[in-house]
Amino acid sequence: MRVPRNVFVKSKGRSRTSAGPAARTTPLAVKCCSAASILILSFAAGPKTSAAADLPLKAPPAQASSAYDWSGAYIGGHLGYVSGNSNWNDGPGVAGSLDLTQPIDVFTEGGSFFAGLQAGYDKMLANRFVIGAVADVSFPAWPNIAGVSVGGTSSLVSPAGPDSYSDAVLSFGTVRGRVGYAPGNWLVYATGGLAWSYDQLSLASASETPQRMRLGWAAGAGVEVPVADHWTANLEYLYTQYGQTNVLFASVGQQFTSTSTMQELRAGLNYHFGDSRMPIAGTAALPSWADSISLHGQATFVWQGHPPINSPYQGQNSLLATSEGDETADVTLFAGAKLWRGAEFWFNPEIDQGFGFANTHGAAGFPSGESYKLGAGYPYARVQRAFVRQTIDLGGETEKVDEDINQFAGSHTTDRLVLTVGRFGVNDIFDTNKYANNPKTDFLNWTLINTGTFDYAGDAWGMTYGAAAEWYVGHWTVRAGVFDLSATPAGGNSPTSYGLDPTFSQLEAVAELERRYELWGQPGTIKVTGFLNRGEAGQYSDATALAQATGQAADITAVRGMTNRPGVSANLAQQITDSLGVFARVGWADGNVEPWDFTDVDSTAAVGSAISGKLWGRPDDTIGIAGIVNDISAVHTAFLNAGGIGILVGDGQLPNPRPEQILETYYSYATSAASRLSFDYQFIANPAYNGDRGPVNVVSVRLHGQF
Description:
52% strand, mainly beta, eight-stranded antiparallel beta barrel
């Protein structure tokens, strides 16, 4: 699937300090759930004819009106907020209570919100009473700097002195029955059943952090309504109470007993299997605004690894000398609503899980754009995008627009103004390329899916707040935008760099000029993109000079001050035939100042091609092959040789610097109209610009499904 213009589907990893509860523990059930999500999405999409096939969202022609039929199986997702408390004691007379509720922080995406998945079955009786059962699992947001999202900490005095006890919920869920009544097209129901949560408990004075399953019960009520053919939306309240749990901190000989309660308010969407609901319901079953919403989803699983490599030494940000493999998984909902003429609101909640190998370190061109430095063994919730897009037609021919991810079906004129405001990725709009742009379906390497020097603003997941304008005139497009940088640059030991700057005092300005043309009757585009980052960043020469004066390793965080970092790049995409396309990227950024949010590249060049399976009778398959050369400035090299740590690189020394050279090739096999299996190979010479280490042979398997 090729991403249409103005369709926001790509998110890229970022290097930050590894964190999160149970960070390196990935249960088999979680991995199986990730793969199952992809299969479910493929099945839900049905027998469509393209990888971006969508489920029908509009009502069919009017039929005899009747109330909605709620019978059948369904799957779906939900997003919500939880509050609660945990009561504990560690012996007679020593007890306390901790608040599980954390405030939502829109700059770090932390707080006590959660996202999850559910599946169930309902049966509607002749009297319009509905009985059914549902099972769900929920995952809290990324933890705050204290390590909790749904969770909290209590202070106490232990035999070791002043101490603290913490409870962090890693996941929770229910298996419930529900009974309701549908007087018309609305379903009102009560629900109750078994509840569970999986918590990580810790004591500051103890070395271990045990995990415990809590069991209890849940009860609540909700309301549900059809919003599109096959789709319903619900709002639900749940009260959960968990029984007593005991945990022994053996390293300090203390045992704690605790109970907990939680209250949840959640909104959900469900896809109902089987025949269309509409032949029974008629058009009256859908609200009048049903054709003003769009619902799509995707799931991606990537396993990536490498065999042992040559490694005479290694540092904090090095690839491991031994063989290593890790996986990542994500599930995303793309929900949109039309607001007024030309205006759309898009909302993209997501569940992420997994790690890049070496905690996404060891190469400036890291081999998986699906990995985030902030990995976690357990899934966690995010809101990746929430933005408004306004399209203003300015004249010219009218072009048809097909419905796709984050895009409504409709039309616009060739000359138009497009305004985007809210939370999204800078690279959703800038530096896009037809052949190398999406790690979910094409190339995986960071410095292929975007120009390596394009240091675009973003948190640890590549998203930011900002505004962008795009002016389309004939064969030309001019783009410009202003965006919030992260709280600090990502290099060095920067624990708060995973979140955005809440003061908006550190900003990035981006401008791009695009020219569309034809060469020998085949379409092509060329884009020139420039950026300027302004904020508190360090200069490599200052960090190296300080290291020489103190005899310590170079520390970029010690020399940060208000400064600018500019960069410019060019991006070419050229179709050769309807089965072959080529692309190229070249870029430069100021090598005297540390990069802010992307990766450690001061100059780059990449070239590659994509070949359609039409040539061998599989038109939905694709082969890609590309090469990259990344390099850094002389002062950047001296900084790394003095023991400096960058965003992704830092071997502790760099006595034999060399350009980083990467070859990537992949085969994407369409397993169905809505899913694909890909095999990817990358060869990395001089990883992290180090001629003493490597080379690295990286193999990857990717499974992707969407509707």
